[in-house]
Amino acid sequence: MQSIRPLSSRIVRYVGSALGVAVIAGAGFIAYAQATESTGSVATQASTATAAVRSVFQGPSLNMGEIYQRVENQGYSEVREIEWDDGLYKVKARNAEGHPIKLYVDGHNGKILSQRLRD
Q1: How many domains does the chain have?
Q2: CB–CB of 41/85 below 8 Å?
Q3: Which of 99, 55, 94 is CA-nearest to residue 76?
Q4: Cα(66)–Cα(92) distance, rounded to whole angstroms?
Q5: Is the per-residue pLDDT at 17 higher than 60?
Q6: Which pTM value belongs to this model?
Q7: pLDDT at 34 over 80
Q8: How many other C-beta atoms lie within 10 A of the C-beta of residue 101?
Q9: Spatial contact of 42 and 55, defined as CB atoms under 8 Å apart
């Protein structure tokens, strides 16, 4: 005869295991990102993903005004369209050469994690 567990017991077990897997995977990914931080573009992608994972759970430490100041202090001009999305600040600005650029900025320390030229 098959034993039937109460529905609440099955739900708690599933959520607990899914959450446990997510936490372990997130911690492993953050450790990987920190270990590879000095290896160039892989590090940039890992840092971007690490910031996103961290920020989803914690939210940004810096507000939009602080991000604006930090981006300007790093030599970018015409800073505009700062938005919080996917655990990062996405900022549209111009680089030192005057080209339009999109920056991905860590909301906790203001570090520019990656950038790409815009059309």
Answers
A1: 1
A2: no
A3: 94
A4: 15
A5: no
A6: 0.52
A7: no
A8: 19
A9: no
Provide CB contacts within 8 A for 104, sequence distance 6+: 48, 88, 89, 90, 91, 112, 113, 114, 115
- 13 inside domain: yes
Query: Which contacts (CB < 8 Å, 24+ apart) does range 94-101 have?
Result: 101/76
Position 4 scores a pLDDT of: 57
Higher-scoring residue by pLDDT: 61, 6: 61
CA 13 to chain centre: 29
Tell me which residue has tokens 């981006």. 71
If you count them, how many residues does the chain have?
Answer: 119
Task: Judge whether 1 lies within some domain.
Answer: no
Structure tokens at 118: 């815009």
